[in-house]
Fold FMN reductase.
Amino acid sequence: MTTRALAVVSGGLSNPSSTRLLADRLTAATVEALRTRGDDATVEVVELRAHARDLADNLVTGFANQALRTAVDTVTGADGLIAVTPIFSASYSGLFKTFFDVLDKEALVGKPVLLGATAGTARHSLALEHAVRPLFSYLRAVPAPTAVFAAPEDWAGAGGVDRALADRIDRAAGELADLISGRPPSTRPVDPFADPTTSFEDLLRGT
C-alpha cells in the first residue's frame, strides 16, 4: 500500500468555521476513496487564519518565516491538495489568494487539487467556476472536475449534511483519488539554503 501525502488548505476566518467543516468532510471522503484504491494517506492541514500576519510580512519582504515556510512546504510537497475558501463579494477571500500568491509560480504544476467553497448564500455557488478554478488553472494545477460548494442550508440534512452535498463530496473525493492514484509519490522540496555546504564565515573570507 502506497502512502500518499494529502495537504488541506482552509481559508476560514472564524473558529469553528463552515469552511473548515467542509474541508474536513472532503478530507475524510478522499482518505476513504484512496483506501479503496489501495493507497493509504497522511493528512496535514494548513489553517490560513494562523498565517495572516506571516503572509502580509512575506508580501512586503519577499521572505517567508519558518511557520509560513513549513505551511508552504506542506502544500508543495503533497501528492494532492484540498483547497477550500469562503466566498466574499463573489470571489475567493483575500487571505486565500494571498497564500497562493506567495508560492513559487511552478509550485503547483501538475498537482491534483479538489476545490471547495462556502458562503452565506447559494447565490455565490458559481464563484468556484468563475474565480477559484481559473486561479488553479493559471497555476497549472490539475483541478478535479467536481468542485464542492456549501451554503448554510446544505448542513441541514441527516448527520449534519444534506444528501445532495454528501453526494457531491463523495464524487469529488473519488475524482481526486483517481488523479492521485497511480502517480509516483511526491517528495518535499529541498531548501538550498537550509544546509549550506559553505559556512557564512568562509563566505565572508571569500573562500
The chain has one domain: 2-205. Residues 77 and 187 are 6 Å apart (CA to CA). The longest helix spans residues 18-36. The chain has a mean pLDDT of 90.
